[in-house]
Amino acid sequence: MTEGFKEHPYLGNSQQDVDEMLQYLGLKSIEELYSDIPDEIRFKGKLDLPHYKSEYELLEAIKAIMSKNITTREVRSFMGGGVLDIYMPALQDEVLRRTEFYSAYTPYQPETSQGTTQALFEYQSMICELVGMNVANCSLYDWATAVGEAALMASRITKRYKFIYTAATAPNREAVLKNYVVGANLELEEIPYDPTTGKMNIAEAKAKMDDTVAGIYIENPNFLGVIEDGLEEIIADAHEKGVKVVIGADMNSLALMKPPGEYGADICIGEGQTIGGGPLNFGGPLLGILAMQFDRRETRQMPGRIVGVTITSNEGERAFANTLETREQHIKRERATSNICTNEGLVALSCAIHLALLGPEGYKDTAETMYLSAHYLVKELEKIGVKRVFNGEFFNTFILDLKIPESKKQEFINFMLERKIFPGIPYSNDGENYDYIVTTSYLLCEEDLNDYAKAIGEWRK
User: Fold this and answer.
1) H-helix or E-strand spanning residue 248
2) Is the pTM of this model over 0.85?
3) In 137-230, which residue ranges form alpha helices assigned H by DSSP?
4) Which pLDDT value is given to residue 111?
5) Per-residue pLDDT averaged across 337-347, rounded?
6) Which domain covers residue 294, as residue numbers?
């Protein structure tokens, strides 16, 4: 018997089957399938799982373990980095849990109901309105995979194999981008940011763009919280050189800022969780947004699917249908753009319901609350001598200049948790001293902001 292999009574997975598959793959054991996983993080030995006699005992044990978690309902959160503590109205959950939506398999199939396709069409329409573009797909897995998909898309359109991006990109999104481009043999190059303002170095960006570059990725506001300016200049230069411009936008900021489509971006991506895709939920599921300006040839390279509206031939009624599907199950494999399949359809629906409930005024109100809260907090911190690391304009995120040494990092976290505050995301340039990326949601009130400033003042004493 191959090590780690156990026969299952309902599957035809005999030892002979396993041996034949291993031989075909050129492997000696099943363990070799996991050889890409670094040895230092691979689990060794057997899982020590306790045995419970009944379902009730198991549930009670799980409850006891989960009760150790600290949630944002108990502790005030100043964390962001791409996801946000949001409020989901009761009506949103009520619609989502309708069995027509909740139990549906995949909206890819031809027999998809009109209700599901219409809901996704409404989602697309809302996203297009937010980003100032005229076509959006029916979602990707998250913002990080959207970066990777956008890079591959730019390469397919331009037939070029270099992609550049700003150093002020979120580390998790950068990591996924690097993973995505390996198979496509895309070369990546980083653009530095100004150490004082936190903004992208425009001169460096221009210097790196030439006829070998497929696309440039710019986050706005960037991971450091800073709003980029001079983008029209960068975009004009990129278009002269045939370079596609991808903007990673904070979707909430678009209620107050000019949308990427209006200043010339080719592709806009972002995260839908922050605008109603769902609660934090330990980091998922999330919702990758991807939109672009329509072009008959280029839109064909968009990953995922697009729902369109048409008129029935017999009665002339409005009907919704999957208009574009570029995965390998529907077209020739070599022409497929992505393996995005059964993705975040329900999360996209959640986002659409949330935006519909908010309406334009509600959407703007929540964005203004985040913006004003962040700027109020900065002023309160400045009163006690604590400043931002970068002086560029910001929306609702900034980096607090604390310089907490590695030896006191956990002590600081514990200190803030005692005051029922998640202080933000640790950020270090040297790996030894930590500043904090602070984000304000619309759920924080003035008292919360004052308590944060007070706690930081106490720590510094």
Assistant:
1) strand 244-249
2) yes
3) 143-158, 171-180, 202-208
4) 65
5) 72
6) 90-355
